[in-house]
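Now for one record:
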Amino acid sequence: MTKINQNFLKLPGSYLFSEVARRISAYCAGHPDAKIIKLSIGDVTRPLAPAVTAAMHKAVDEMGTFEGFHGYGPEQGYEFLREAVAQHDYQSRGMDVKPEEIFISDGAKSDCGNIGDIFGADNIVAVCDPVYPVYVDTNAMAGRAGEYQEALGRWNRLVYMPCVKENGFTPEPPKEAVDLIYLCFPNNPTGAVATREQLKTWVDYANRTGAVILYDSAYEAFITGADIPHSIFEIEGARTCAIEFRSYSKTAGFTGNRCAYTVVPLELERDGAKLNSLWNRRQCTKFNGVPYVVQRGAAAIYTPEGKEQTRQSIEYYRENAKIIREGLSAAGLSCFGGTDAPYIWLETPGKMGSWEFFDLLLDKANVATTPGAGFGPSGEGYIRLTAFGDAQATKTAVERIQKIL
């Protein structure tokens, strides 16, 4: 008889954002006149930049000709995009990242989960707490997480690194030995950033112990501080211990187009094998590449026009974050993040539970958020708000919350 992957049966409930969407839908079904403003799931609302759509239109026209038609593309991504990424995102900032170290994909979410394919199931994994659920769930599916402890809200084989108010929501290297370390800066969900000195501590730790850092830098475009690193590869020694994930979803509004990339340095080796080669082998076997039209659109982000138009969208969301942070802080709530990140991490009033405060805001203010408890044990007592909404709707949401408080 066919056997299934028993690890899937160990997963608790549903995926966090699916559960949030389900609860919002259930509320709307019972309150058909409610006008819900969503500050919950981080989907963008601004349209694609004109430079991007122009490039995609041109690419579509090319595909309609014998001379310009493209069938299967390279699984690693077209050279024109890999070269643009290397030049503009890395080399221009003094990092020696080569096109052959860049793998174009359909999303950082996909890559953060799929990267586990090249690592053994017996590796010990460390995650921040609170944590983006994909890091945890995909390792649980692979059998690395062990058993889920319902009472504690955590997996018994994962090493949870507390990110709490007392440490500025930035973890310290664990005392126990770990093999894979997920770091995300600017952080989702807390909005925290890491300094150069803090990242250097992690790089030194990984090189000393043989661990690999899996660095999610999907929100680096929202960094405002001149001294905050945009990439792990700005840190000396990172090329021998780190893999970096980036995405165009929030940077350029590609949530519906699906395009991202992962950087695996050629120097990075474990067990005598180059991880660049292993990831290439994995992608060639399991991935057919991002569509040519989408990659042409992504490449247009790096043109002068594309850069400026993308910058304007990022500034739009930064202003939303400022409105949320300042408006709710003025209402007496403790807010974190929202300066170098598109997320605001809000402490619930009166030690109210995350889901309880979620229900209160949904029912009394008609504002949807994301409960912090869904991100891990240390997320209890917080909610996450996103700055990716419409500007006027964001202002209205803040006003509604102020009124019920």
